[in-house]
């Protein structure tokens, strides 16, 4: 794989701030007036640097420069302190939405040397141009990675997991519980034996990007701007998690759509699916060998089960792999959104016709309110499916996976100098 190296992190001085008040979610989930609410919690909340303008607003050059000025001011005031070179073990303790079971997801934070997508660094999802432009402008101003990309590694021999297990036996350097009840723990790892062990364990691992495609592509673009020989821009902060990790949770991302529903919609769907009316929210069976999709319409809910004898083969994308064409989300997009509701790839990319949520009850509310004409409830995509699609050289449709929970922003930053 590309090299995965320790770095000199920048962290809040816990004697100066209450850490739980200054952390924030990733930039792309800070909606509405959430930026203002975070700053009201503490004026030193990392969102002042991470998000140059409120959600829905276009940041100006002055906004990006203000973020950079704030970062420099906080460093000068000692709000942020610089570590010696280290890896960081990061643990999130959380409960699964809708479940009381407690999970712990663990990984290693380091600096991944950049390279073009290929065998060693694989994407699994398509990206949009808007977020990449924003992230590039911010990176140009800050010259700092503010939030880690989330990567997955095979760790077939369990070496990485064993190293992490040894580290977490000691007291963490950072503990903070956020507003969602998720506890974040961070261990700074700088002893030579463990550092050498981590570096060796990652030496032959490839990385599958689980979340943060826009930020990785942004880092690549910044690197190209500054020349591939530039050490300061040749890496990006990444959290690497073993695919065998017991706390790896992937949630489905449901779709609510704005489209004209044909009068014969259910009859047409019956050519491909067994259509069953259901009481309450449709709940696709994750163990069903056939694709199942929940359908919510203004006047009723349905469960759609793909017929083995259906004509789906006629709608296959022959340029894509069998792994890609077998995905529930691809079947939804090709058979229903595109063919029946006329929401093609251009309309999907515009963001005006489809909204996303991980909560099926919210999807139903969106339809019942009249703001959306239909919603589709999906099953979660398994990690192995994500890997199979990436190995085949394909990218999944955007918002195909939701690795829960998101990585918090503000535990550690990575300056490029």
Number of helices: 14
Strand content: 25-35%
Indicate the percent of residues in helices. 25-40%
Report the uncertain regions: none
How many strand segments? 20
Task: Give the helices and strands, then pairings.
Layout: E1 4-5, E2 7-12, H1 19-22, H2 34-41, H3 47-50, H4 61-77, E3 80-95, E4 102-113, E5 121-122, H5 129-142, E6 144-145, E7 149-153, H6 159-167, E8 174-177, E9 183-189, H7 192-201, E10 207-211, H8 213-226, E11 235-242, E12 249-251, E13 254-257, H9 265-269, E14 273-278, E15 292-297, E16 300-306, H10 322-325, H11 328-338, H12 345-350, E17 354-357, H13 360-368, E18 374-377, H14 383-391, E19 402-404, E20 414-415
Helix pairs in contact: 4-5, 5-8, 6-7
Quick structural overview:
With 417 residues, this protein is of the alpha+beta class. It has helices at residues 19-22, 34-41, 47-50, 61-77, 129-142, 159-167, 192-201, 213-226, 265-269, 322-325, 328-338, 345-350, 360-368, 383-391; strands at residues 4-5, 7-12, 80-95, 102-113, 121-122, 144-145, 149-153, 174-177, 183-189, 207-211, 235-242, 249-251, 254-257, 273-278, 292-297, 300-306, 354-357, 374-377, 402-404, 414-415. The radius of gyration is 22 Å and the shape is globular.
Task: Describe the 3D structure.
The structure is a single chain. With 417 residues, the chain is of the alpha+beta class. It is built from 14 helices and 20 strands. The protein has helices at residues 19-22, 34-41, 47-50, 61-77, 129-142, 159-167, 192-201, 213-226, 265-269, 322-325, 328-338, 345-350, 360-368, 383-391, and strands at residues 4-5, 7-12, 80-95, 102-113, 121-122, 144-145, 149-153, 174-177, 183-189, 207-211, 235-242, 249-251, 254-257, 273-278, 292-297, 300-306, 354-357, 374-377, 402-404, 414-415. Strands 1, 2, 3, 4, 5, 7, 8, 9, 10 and 11 form a ten-stranded mixed β-sheet that branches. Strands 14-16-15-18-13-17 form a six-stranded antiparallel β-sheet, with helices on one face. A two-stranded antiparallel sheet has the order 6-20. Helix 4 crosses helix 5 (129-142), helix 5 crosses helix 8 and helix 6 (159-167) runs antiparallel to helix 7 (192-201). The longest helix is centred in the first third of the chain and has 17 residues, at 61-77. It is globular. The model has no long low-confidence stretch (mean pLDDT 92).
